[in-house]
């Protein structure tokens, strides 16, 4: 399993609008690509940063699904969210892979 993690630091004054946008528009659009099986949105509580930090995690079955998503869908969806919130939002992306190790 691959987790595509998008961490966003937002200004406090857009928090409600950001949450509504993520739940009603952005996350459904990402899932509608068919490249992810699930998504979760987390509020980062520690460490505290300036602003409010959220982590959106999208769960893909394979690296190939993520590569396809990034090549064909991600640029437009990133542009849409940047257009919506401008400089009130700063995002960075990371990728996690579930290990098969037995503990």
Automatic annotation (TrEMBL):
It holds the Pfam family DUF4286. It comes from the Bacteria. This is DUF4286 family protein. It comes from Pedobacter puniceum.
């Amino acid at each position: 399993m691959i987790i595509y993690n998008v961490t966003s630091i937002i200004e406090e004054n857009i928090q409600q609008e950001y949450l509504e946008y993520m739940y009603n528009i952005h996350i459904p659009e990402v899932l509608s690509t068919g490249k992810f099986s699930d998504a979760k949105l987390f509020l980062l509580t520690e460490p505290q940063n300036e602003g409010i930090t959220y982590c959106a995690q999208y769960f893909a079955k394979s690296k190939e699904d993520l590569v396809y998503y990034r090549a064909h869908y991600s640029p437009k969806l990133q542009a849409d969210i940047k257009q919506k919130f401008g400089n009130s939002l700063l995002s960075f992306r990371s990728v996690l892979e579930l290990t098969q190790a037995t503990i």
